[in-house]
Amino acid sequence: MSKLKTFSLSLSTIALLAAAPALADVDAREIWDEWQAQGAAIGQTLSATSVTDTDTGLRISGMTVLADQGGSTSTVEIDEITLNENADGTLSVEMSDPVRITTVSQIDDGPAVRIDMGVRHQGLNITVSGDAGARDYEYDADSITISSEQMTVDGQSAGEMNIAATITDFAGQHMLTGDTVETTEITSSSSFSGMSGTIDAAAPNGQDGGFKLSFNMGPMTSTGSGSMFALAFISQMSDDTSVPENFSLLSDLEYERLSYEMTVDEAGSSFNMSFANEGGEMGVALTEGGLTYDLSAVNVDAAILTNEFPAPIEISADSTGFLFTLPLMPEDEPSDMALRLDYRGLEVNEALWSMIDPGQAIPRDPATLIVDITGKVQMLVNLLAGDPTAFQGPPGELREVTLNDLQINAAGASLEGEGDLEFAPGQMVPMPVGTIDLRAAGLNALLDRLTSAGLLPEPQAAMVRGMSGMFARPGPTADTLETTIEFQPGGGITANGIPLQ
């Protein structure tokens, strides 16, 4: 729970400091008052060592943003912020460099972990305009760099760990619509031309080895929407909190390319992983209906090299997709859930194939894996509250599952299917009732190839053929099979009318 609150805290702090709302033709002191009110609404305290009037507005010195939530304390410090009222009715915000961020986290009776970070900016411009109830502000920067300065555990150095990330050509716009903190809606958009960074950590206590991660992202655009009320709700959530009606935080991101490389060295072992794609999208939605992640990418390449495996492992795909929707709160009626996996054009490297099938008996055709499931689930616990490891039993019970699409194409064979299942409440072990229709093609040819490659003994291949003939019926074309798997009340299962259980 504390991680979600800390993430919300970071987002809201950036929103307040990098693009805090102001009203055209409203003096700077009123703007400072608004910042403090909005911070208080989302669990933050804004203070300053001094606030003085200037000929053009206001100078805020020694500004601090403090939040203490769920065992995690976050402090943002800015030496000076200047608010300048412009002749055209807009407001300019100037911010000293760097911005210092300190987080201290402690879980239960564990050690207190402190991380000090610095945020530096070049060419930062913030302009605020708009009337009351429709506040618009724009910002851009040549670059923004985040870097670690120190990490300690219970006041002692945690070893050498350097974190650095730089965003270039950053630009964005926010619109806040509403007359009060409680009714203010937020919409935003942002972009940058690139982002790169590294994480470099040495093994503790002078030991050999370490960890290194480098990443690079191409041009990115994003949009988001939500409300000040939603941010306030997250900051004040407790164990018995229920997500209110019309709660919504949405974010969508699109980028042109992404790559990273990770290396882990330990005594006697090494591990290296690289990943790259040529663009993708990511959508995240937190609403009263639950949490949704929607990820996709194109032209994906991944490679793993370790001294514990004799050959490199290389995997590529024309496209990948992952969608996951899960309700988070108990409701009177079952809630919607969804899961979709969509991987097309999957291939592995020849070195890996040669270890399995040196004679090339099995076709190397690109594979496809698609699983599309929707349904209903009755949540029994509040996933937003408490420690998930303390839950007794499953957090929810399935009520309905619809297999909208199943496609598996690999090694010259394929499997397709769809179906509907229902689940009665109160079952310790879920027992479905319903049917799944399956269709297979190329199964006998695949068995022949596996036997030829020496991967499957002939007696076992003959047993598989006999079982498929018993539990499936011939399809409309050669080497195709069809079957209906029926899950009956009481736990009985049949395939093509033949009892399996």
From TrEMBL:
Pfam families linked to this entry: DUF2125
Q: Signal peptide: which range, if any?
A: 1-24
Q: Which UniProt keywords apply?
A: Signal
Superkingdom per UniProt: Bacteria
Q: What is this protein called?
A: DUF2125 domain-containing protein
